[in-house]
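Narrative of activities, Objective 1.

The group set out to show that a structural description can be obtained from nothing but a protein's sequence at a throughput compatible with the screening campaign. Below is one input-output pair from the validation batch, recorded exactly as produced.
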Amino acid sequence: MRMIARICTAALTAAASLAVSTSHAENGSTSYDFLNIPTSSHAYALGGTGIAIIDDDISLADQNPALIGPEIENQFSLGYMLYMGSGNFASLRYGMAAGEHGAWAAGIRYLNYGKLIEFDQSGIEGGKFSPTDIVFEGTYSHDITSRWRGGINLNLIYSHYHIYSAFAIGVDLGVNYYDEEHDLSFSAVIKNAGGQVKRFHEAYNRLPFDVQLGYMQGIGSSAFSVAITATHLTRWNLPYYTHPKNEEGDASVLKSNFFSNFFRHLTFGLQFQPSDKFYAALAYDYKTATDMSTYSRNFFSGFSLGLGLKVRGFGFGVSYGMPFKTGSTLMLNINCCLAELMN
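Output recorded for this entry:
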């Protein structure tokens, strides 16, 4: 236990140092928002922030490192996302138990945004290029008590955009409380603490540092659960622009009041899970809906939905979302528990 405490203390110290360096970046801009895209179709179905989901699914590790444990022994997952029509994202992760109360996982994420056309400073068209991001991930988690679990993610991030490249290091720290008797899960996560080691150019680009809280609760003895996730907790004001008549000629109106700021921090989800072999989920993210309200919002903006099925050691998941009129996102997951197949 002393060794575990020392490891946790060292991890917290390192993460705190990275967070400080991130928060003190002068005039920094974020170029790493892709780190917020989930690799789990289950998480995407519940709004893309499933930090309190309880499932034997190793692909949830990037949501909250405390969501994996010895139950993911000898499990691997493969994920694919068709993102906004032209982006192709893939992920691969493998994990094993570390004793009776711990687990580790390693994975890689590959994100390609399709072909873009190069233009010089005079507006003359050049060739084509494909922006690419690659994330190498390592995760460790450990049971603190019978109901509390903590974990840490280490992300090594390489980005290559035409003739520019950069390298960054990010850390996630998370805890989860799970009361199986009352079907209650609560999580807190510090995400994307860190910074660039090698910059694209002279400017410093920040990681999308965030603090998140997640709650998931079964509804009585029914097969339904509600999920509420609070994000962007490092700042209160989340203003956005809208066009009253949804026409380009109209002036933009800045929206920033108590209720809009409050709900833009929250994602709401509903899950139907009659057994541990099947789930159906639906979520609404008010921030996504209002971000798209300028020109391209439709009725489905902010909504996401998905299904999951487990059969003989295999898990299959699919989820779908349409953030704006001309852009939809489809995500697929396949999990395989080798330990279960060998039995």
